Amino acid sequence: MRIVTWNINSVRLRAPMVVQLMREESPDVICLQETKTLDEFFPHEAFEAEGYAHIHINGMKSYNGVCILSRLPFEGTDIHSRVGKDDCRHIEVSLRLPSALQTRLGSDTLDIHNLYIPAGGDEPDRKINEKFGHKLDFIDEMTEFFSKKYNKKDAVITLGDFNIAPREHDVWSSKQLQKVVSHTPIELEHLGRMYDSIGWEDAIRHFVPDEEKCYSWWSYRNRDFRKSNRGRRLDHIWVTQPLVDNLKGYKILDSYREMTKPSDHVPVMIELQK
DNA sequence: ATGGTTGGTTACCAA
């Protein structure tokens, strides 16, 4: 069972790339962020034609927007307001699992939370930058949400564009990014509390050693992202402990960054034993 | 220190 997260940076512009991903990797579930469109303009026909009949979307004009495209039916769906805003950053689905996975997990369903955590602006100080405060508050609200809703034996995945590269080798230079929003100690502290809330496991670092550089995003402001390779790992897939033993593999599809008119983020995928 | 690029708008904002 394959599950993908991808900040698509306009789903209307890049729907053909999503279709390509469907054909090349055959994921069961694709979670997108920054769809940047109202639901009425969402290109669902293109995805339904590829066999993704189950689509949960929450979009707005111009900004943010998240969706979940699935070959497996949903048992339930939800849309969450965060920090008192209806700004389309958190949706949830509950999937009915293949029967073998049901047996191993002791659960009929799997909950998936798709997040687009606020980027947080440029200045890492909430006293002078509201956006940074919004980011920290969003993360704190997620920590409380997960702690209240779940316990450590539930089968849950949270994924998305977290806009934070938490580990030393999730950025090209930890030293040079100490004061750059996405890698500041204060953000790492808040995200660390979310990580501890229900004992999450970082499914990518489960496979990639901590001392190995690992990125999912490269700025548009570099002439040649391969040559400069100043990347950051902003996109994450976290799983609860019951799922850890069922992790089969992962892929970071960095070739999608080389396409014509790419997103600045690439798809990140995990595979669970069916 | 500064600027570099992109997408959605339709004048700049957010990333």
Would you give an account of this structure?
The chain has helices at 11-25, 44-48, 99-105, 130-149, 185-197, 225-228, 241-244, and strands spanning 2-7, 29-33, 54-58, 66-70, 74-79, 90-96, 109-116, 156-161, 201-202, 217-218, 231-232, 235-239, 247-252, 268-272. By secondary structure, it is α+β, with helices and mostly antiparallel strands. The protein has one domain (2-272): Endonuclease/exonuclease/phosphatase (Deoxyribonuclease I, Chain A). A 6-stranded mixed sheet has the order 3-4-2-1-14-13. Strands 5-6-7-8-12-9 form a 6-stranded mixed sheet. The chain has a two-stranded antiparallel sheet with strand order 10-11. Helix 4 links the parallel strand 7 (109-116) and strand 8. Helix 4 (130-149) runs parallel beside helix 5. The model has no long low-confidence stretch (mean pLDDT 97). The protein binds one DNA strand of 15 nucleotides through residues 9-10, 13, 34, 36-37, 61-63, 119, 121, 131, 163, 219-223, 261, 263-264.
